[in-house]
Amino acid sequence: MDIKDLLKRAAKVYFIIATLICFAMYIIGALSFPEAKLGYEAFSAPLLYALFGVVPVIIMYSSKELSVKQFIMRKIIQLISIEILIFVALLGGDYLPLTFPVAAGLFFLVALIFVLEHVIEFLLDSKRAADLTKDLEDYQKRS
Amino acid sequence: MNFRRTKITVNEISPEELEAITIDCHVIDDDVKEIVSFVKSRQGQLTGKLDGELYEISVMDILYIESVDNRVFMYTSKQSYETSGKIYELEELLKQKHFLRISKSSIVNLMKIKSIKPSLNARFIAVLSNGEEIMISRKYVADLKKTLKGGQ
Predict the structure, then answer these.
(1) B80-83 and B99-103 as β-strands: parallel, antiparallel, unpaired?
(2) In what order do the strands lie in the sheet with B124-128?
(3) Which of A40, A71, A92, B93 could form a disulfide with A66 if both were Cys (CB 3.0 to 4.6 A apart)?
(4) Are A117 and A17 spatial neighbours (Cβ–Cβ below 8 Å)?
(5) Would an 8 Å CB–CB cutoff place B135 in contact with chain A?
(6) A63: three-class secondary structure by DSSP
(7) Is B142 on the interface with A (CB under 8 A)?
(8) Can you give the pTM of this predicted structure?
(9) Would you write out chain A's pLDDT as a tens digit for each of its 143 residues?
(10) Quick check: A113 and A20 in contact, CB under 8 A?
(11) Pick the residue with more confidence: A78 or B44?
C-alpha cells in the first residue's frame, strides 16, 4: 500500500469509525444513562475518538505488499494501539471511573467497533469486486 | 559502448506474396533474440524455456506472467515457462493483447480471469480460468477498472 492509498483508506476508515462511535454512544447512552443531558460538545466526541482510531492506520503503511500473515500481525498491533490511545484519552482525562466493568466494557466496545469497521470495509470491497467482475464479463464479451 | 551498424530494408510486396522477415547477423546474441521475440509476440507467440528446451507459446494460452527473483515466468493452464523478456517490456508488448499489470511483479491476461474477489489483506484476488488465484494490488485497481470500461 503506498502513501496515497493509505491516506484515502484512512479517510474512509475515519468516517466509518465516527459513524460507529455515534451508534455506540446512542446504544450505551440509552441503556446506561437514559436521564443524562449532554451539551453540544458531545457532537465532537465521535469525531475526536475516530481520530484516535484512525491514527494507528499508519502502522499499515508499507512500500511493499504485505503478506496475509504480516497483515494480520499489523492489524493486531493496530488494535492494541487504538485500545491504548482510547484508554489514555478517556481514563487519563478522568471522564470515566477506572473500574473493572468500565475498563472491560470499553475494551470490548473498541474491539467491536474495530471488527465492525473491517466488516463494513470488506462488504464495500465485495461490492467493488462484484462490479469489477461485471465489467470484466462485459469486456470479455466485447473483445 | 558498441552500437550495431545494421542496414534496415523494408520492401513492399504484393498481397499474393508471403510476408517474411529475415535477420542476417554475425552472431545470434541477446539483441537478436529480443527482436525475434518481439516479432513473434506481434504474431501472437512468445518463446519460453522449459527444462532447457525452447517452446513457442501462443499468447492466448498464457494466463499470467510473473517476475520472481529477477526471473520472468509465463504461466499457462498446464506449464510455466521462463522467458528472457523483462516484465515491463512484456507489459508494453502485450498491452494490445488484453494483458494488464496487476501488481509490481505480474501482468495478467484479462481474457483468462473468471472473477474478482476481495482479499483479507485489503487487496483483490483474480480467480483465473484454471482456478488459480493471483493478487491484484490496490494500486492497480483503478487502471484495471479503466481498462475494463474501455479506456487504455
Answers:
(1) unpaired
(2) B113-118, B124-128, B133-136
(3) A71
(4) yes
(5) yes
(6) coil
(7) no
(8) 0.74
(9) 567 777 888 898 899 999 999 998 888 888 888 888 888 888 888 998 898 888 887 766 666 777 778 888 888 988 998 888 888 877 766 666 677 887 888 889 889 999 998 899 899 999 999 999 999 999 999 87
(10) yes
(11) A78
Q: By the CB < 8 Å criterion, does B108 face chain A?
A: no
Q: Which three cell numbers stand for residue B148?
A: 475494463
Q: pLDDT over 70 for what percent of chain B?
A: 95
Distance in angstroms (rounded) separating the CA atoms of residues B64 and B128: 9
Query: If you search the block for the grid coordinates 475516530, which residue do you land on?
Result: A50
Q: What residue has cell string 508471403?
A: B18
Task: Name chain A contacts of B121, Cβ cutoff 8 Å.
Answer: 66-68, 70-71
Best B137, B148, B149 residue to mutate vs chain A (most A CBs within 10 Å): B148
State percent of chain B over pLDDT 90.
46
Cell 498446464, residue? B78
Grid cell at residue A103: 475498563
Q: How many CB atoms lie within 10 A of CB B53?
A: 8
The DSSP output letter for A2 is -
Is A1 close to B138, i.e. CB distance below 8 A?
A: yes
Is A72:A60 a contact under the CB 8 Å cutoff?
no
Copy the grid coordinates of residue B64.
499470467
Cα separation of B57 and B79, whole Å?
10
Separation in Å, CA A35 to CA A28, A90, A98, A102:
12, 21, 22, 19
pLDDT band of B110, cuts 50, 70, 90: very high
User: Which of B98, B117, B148 is closest, CB to CB, to A135?
Assistant: B148
Q: What is the DSSP letter of B67?
A: E
Q: Which of B110, B120, B124 sits opposite A129 (nearest CB)?
A: B124
Residue B116 and residue B127 in contact, taking contact as beta carbons nearer than 8 Å: yes
